[in-house]
Amino acid sequence: MPLALLALAVVAFGIGTTEFATMGLLPQIADGVGVSVPHAGNLVSAYALGVVVGAPLLTGIGARIPHKRLLLLLSGLFVVGNAASALAPDFGLLFAARFLAGLPHGALFGVGAVVASRLVAPGRAARAVSKMFLGLTVANIIGVPASTALGQQLGWRSAYWAVTAIGLVALLMLACFVPHQPRGRQSGIRTELRAMGNRQVAIGMAVAVVGFGGFFAVYSYLVPMLTNLTGMSDSSTTLVLALYGVGMTLGTLIAGPLTDRALRPTLYAGLALLAAALVTFYFTVHSLVPALVTITFIGAMGSLITTPVQMLLMAKAKDAPTMAAASNHSAFNLANAGGAWIGGLVISAGWGWAAPSLAGAALALVGLALAFTGGLMDRGDRRSEVVMEGSAVPDRETRTVG
C-alpha cells in the first residue's frame, strides 16, 4: 500500500510541476518560439483548457476500463503531451501540445483518488487521498523551482523533458505497485453521468470553483503584490512561492486526518480561515515578515479545502465517484481562471495591488455560504459515506460527511 500511494504521489508531483513550470519560463519560451511574453501566456490557458475538457471526457471514455489500466493509459498520454511540448517547433504546435498535456490531468487525479481511497480502510480514505495530493504540493516546493532553474540554464525544452522523465518513472511505479481494482457491475458512462446530476455534487463543484477562486485571486498576483508593496526583489519571489508550497504541504498533511474525522466541519473551517487569512494579508502585505507568515497560512488553508471537497464529491456520487472526483479538478482550474480574472479586475479598477486579497476573501465567504447550504440540505440524509463502486462502508462512518 505505501508504495502504491507513493506511485500516485509521483504522478501528482509530475502534474504539479508541468502545470506551473510554464509560468516561470514564459520569457524563455517566448524567445524560443518567436512570440511576445503575453502571447506565450496563452500556453497556461491551453493547459487549463485541456484539464477542463479532459477530466469529464476521458473519465467518461474510460468508465468501463479497470482503474489500474486507465491510470497507465492516462499516464502514457501525460508523457506524450510533455514530450510533444519539448519537441514543438513553433507556437501553434506548442499550444496544441500543452492542451494535450492537460487532458489527462483531472482524470488522473480523479481515478487516482478513487484508487487511493480503496487501498485503505474506509475510515482512513481521506488520509490516503491527501497523501496523493502531497505530490502536488511538494511540486510547488521542489519541482517547479527546479524545473524553472533547469529551463533557465539549459533551455525551456529541458524543463518539459524533465517532466517527461518524471512521467515515465510514475508510469513504471504504477505498473509495479498499484494493485488491480475491478470496476463495479454498475460502472459505465451512464452511471457516472447520473451521479453527476446529484444536487450535492453540483453544490460541491460550486464550492470548489468559488471558494478556491479566492485562493487564486491572490496567488495569481502574488509576485507583483510582493514587489510593489512589500519591496521584495524579483529574485527573492521564487523562494516566497516555495514558502507558499510549504504552507500548502502542511495544509494537505492535516487535511486527511481532519477530513476522516469530520468532513464538513473541516471544509467550513478551511473556508472561514482562508477568508480571514486573505483579509489579514491585505494589512500585512506591506511588511516582510508578517507578509511571509500570512502567505504560509493562506497556502495551508487553501490546501485544507482540497481534500474535504474531493471526498464530499466522491461520497455524494455514491457508487460512481470517478467522474465527480475528476471533474473536481476541472472546477479547480475554473477557480484558477475565475480568481485570476476577478483579481485582475480589482487591480485594473484602481483599487490597488492589495485589493485581490479582499476580493479573494469575498469569494471564500461565498464558498462558505454554499458549503453551509449543502450541509443544511444534507441534514436529513445520513447516508453520506464514501462508497467505492459496490464496496460496503460500516455505519459508524456515515457521520463523517453529514
From TrEMBL:
Residues 2-379 form the Major facilitator superfamily (MFS) profile domain. PROSITE patterns: MFS. It is found in: Cell membrane. It is a multi-pass membrane protein. Keywords: Cell membrane, Membrane, Transmembrane, Transmembrane helix. InterPro entries: MFS (IPR011701), MFS_dom (IPR020846), MFS_Efflux_Transporters (IPR050189), MFS_trans_sf (IPR036259). The chain crosses the membrane at residues 44-63, 70-89, 95-121, 133-152, 158-180, 201-223, 235-255, 267-285, 291-313, 334-353, 359-377. The keyword Cell division does not apply. This is MFS transporter. It comes from Streptomyces prasinus.
